[in-house]
Amino acid sequence: MENFTQNQGRPDGRAFDQLREIKFEAGIAPYATGSVLVSFGNTKVICAATIEKRVPPWMNSLETPQGWISAEYSMLPYSTLERKKRASTAGKVDGRSVEIQRLIGRALRAVTVLENIPGITIWIDCDVLQADGGTRTASISGAYVAAKIAVNKLLASGEIAADPFSDSVAAVSVGIYNGETVLDLPYEEDKDAEVDANIVMTGSAKFVEVQASGEEATFDGTQLSELISLAKKGIGEITALQNAAIESAK
């Protein structure tokens, strides 16, 4: 009876500390060096890694040759209930997309030894097919899988000598909804949450980024600690799924 009562607190019936069904389907884009279709419930994102044998011009003056990782993020017009304009039609990339693609790039570079990919840029393209909350966290989690698959191919072919990844990276949303701390919010919860947070962490449980804000509400240190603890649990589970997907792509 206790679990039944707990599950009634969320619209989809999940326990407060339960992730949505998460899947990583590797090889979704054959022409990319590494790719994955990542699903966080009804949120679905294609993440593809492409290798370019050059780096941004400002890196050419560095004493030690390095590589770079850069990301682009977009929501396809049919990914939301109301059609979203393409950036090419709107004439510019919207501020939210710029923020998210910078976050994806920062998250991956935080666990990368750039000296191990000298002269190489790994481009990560994250295209949202369907949005139901957590597109940035799904994109970060999928971007790492796509990039790691691509790196493994470079290692196998001898194009690079050492793995540039020092750790894995993943992200998940947490929040306070109807007074309860909850994990991995879909849109129905996200739009009404009193507190909304996105946590980016490494596989060894180190923080890359913590984004937390009260939505017409405040939160205290105890609640923030609860949110972070919940995120750690979720990211641990996501990391295991990432590793399984990368292994299956060999």
Keywords:
alpha+beta; Ribosomal Protein S5, domain 2; five-stranded mixed sheet; four-stranded antiparallel sheet; globular; disordered N terminus
Account of the protein in words:
- The chain is of the alpha+beta class and 250 residues long.
- It has one domain: GHMP Kinase, N-terminal domain (Ribosomal Protein S5, domain 2, 2-Layer Sandwich), CATH 3.30.230.
- Helix content is 32%, strand content 28%.
- A hairpin with a 2-residue loop joins strand 2 and strand 3.
- Helix 3 crosses helix 4 and helix 4 (135-157) packs parallel to helix 6.
Q: How would you classify the helix and strand content by structural class?
A: alpha+beta
Number of domains: 1
Major sheet, described briefly?
5 strands, mixed
SSE arrangement, N to C: HEEEEHHEHEEHEEH
- CATH class, please? Alpha Beta
Mean pLDDT across the residues is 93
Helix content: 25-40%
- Provide the CATH architecture: 2-Layer Sandwich
Q: What would the principal axes of the Cα set say about the shape?
A: globular
| CATH fold field value | Ribosomal Protein S5, domain 2
Alpha carbon gyration radius = 18 Å
Distance between the termini: 44 Å
Proportion of residues in extended strands: 25-35%
